[in-house]
Amino acid sequence: MIKNYIRKDLSGFQPYEPELGQYPIKLDANENPFKHSEVILNEINEFTKDPFNLSRYPDTTSSELKKKIAKYWHFKKENVVCGVGSDQIIDCLLKVLIEPGDKIVMPSPSFSMYKHSTVLNHGVPIEITLDEANNYAYDIEAIIKITNEQKPKALFLCSPNNPTGNILSNKEIESVLKAVDCPVIVDEAYAEFTHTTAIDLINQYEHLVVLRTFSKAYGLAGLRLGYALGHKDIIDAIKLGVPPYNLNAFAQFVGQIIMDYIDVYKSDLDVIMKERDRLIDIINKLELVEKVYPSEANFLLIKCKKDTIAKGLKEKDILVRDFSKHPNMLNCIRVTIGTEEENNQLIQALKSLE
Ligand code: PMP
């Protein structure tokens, strides 16, 4: 009965529900494998010492957190908006941009929420296929051409791209920004694992929004905290779609602590990047592997010789993301870089599946 009331265009639409379950080695969601350091955990404990932190509504504008983020990037508070993960910012932005039937251009394969949120917000996703034979590199000319032809309300770019791991240079992003008029959203959820950011371009381009998250490099996936940086006008537009009190008080509190101690995370990031390079070398040589795509993120896209590897790893208590049936990623799995020990266990498990 209730089905009759659901929007007709959502028939066949699936909820976003990644695999759950307890796996001793969890390498499926690109989380940070390390524990937060003692200094951070001690600061976090302060939260409950003030009972009003729980009983009062949080600051609905996340003002103190935005100040710290803005200071770090040499912007003003008005250039920042915070969300319940960058997922929420994607949704809020699409909410205020899309009128029914408007188009949104995005790469494919890429982060699934661009499409998901576009459809939920009555938009039409226009996917630009990244070429597997070219390591899924962005074709800048094609992006510009399709965007100008389709006249979308926004263009998403993801760098490093999830799940392919490749990046866009600022030169490439700039050539897109110069050639298209619509808002360009550069999702940098994994930018801490590489050495480039489009944030440097914000001052010159009013239609650029850069998305960042605390979920990956800063190990805060459980608290849900992301933000966008951009010109005041586009940030004000996103704010129109943000629900009241979106960020709970604890997430705001911990986000501020992380901004205060951001350098503490550098050593974790160095280890992850070193482990990434070590894993690429080793996994590339395995018998069951056809190819490991170059990656500048905290995960690897691995093309295997069969489509049963994710299942085989799961039986050995290792959860990875299975893309093996995706038409543009046949036989591929995506593996998060874990601790050295987890990575060694992954290598052993892969060897045993040969
Ligand atoms: N962008 C990309 C490219 C991602 O991979 C993810 C998480 N998988 C997100 C955004 C969302 O991150 P969060 O909502 O946790 O900030």
Could you describe the 3D structure shown?
With 354 residues, the protein is an alpha/beta fold. The chain has two domains: 21-34 and 266-352, Aspartate Aminotransferase, domain 1 (Alpha-Beta Complex); 38-263, Type I PLP-dependent aspartate aminotransferase-like (Major domain) (Aspartate Aminotransferase, domain 2, 3-Layer(aba) Sandwich). 36% of the residues lie in helices and 17% in strands. The chain has twelve helices and twelve strands. It has helices spanning 38-45, 52-55, 63-73, 85-97, 113-120, 140-150, 170-179, 232-241, 249-260, 266-284, 309-315, 340-352, and strands at 25-27, 80-83, 103-108, 124-129, 154-158, 184-187, 208-213, 226-230, 289-292, 299-304, 318-322, 332-336. A seven-stranded mixed beta sheet has the order 2-8-7-6-5-3-4, sandwiched between helices. Strands 1-11-12-10-9 form a five-stranded mixed beta sheet. Strand 5 (154-158), helix 7 (170-179) and strand 6 form a beta-alpha-beta unit. It is globular and about 55 Å long. 43% of the residues are buried. The model has no long low-confidence stretch (mean pLDDT 97). 4'-deoxy-4'-aminopyridoxal-5'-phosphate (PMP) is lined by residues 30, 85-87, 111, 158, 162, 187, 189, 213, 215, 221, 226.
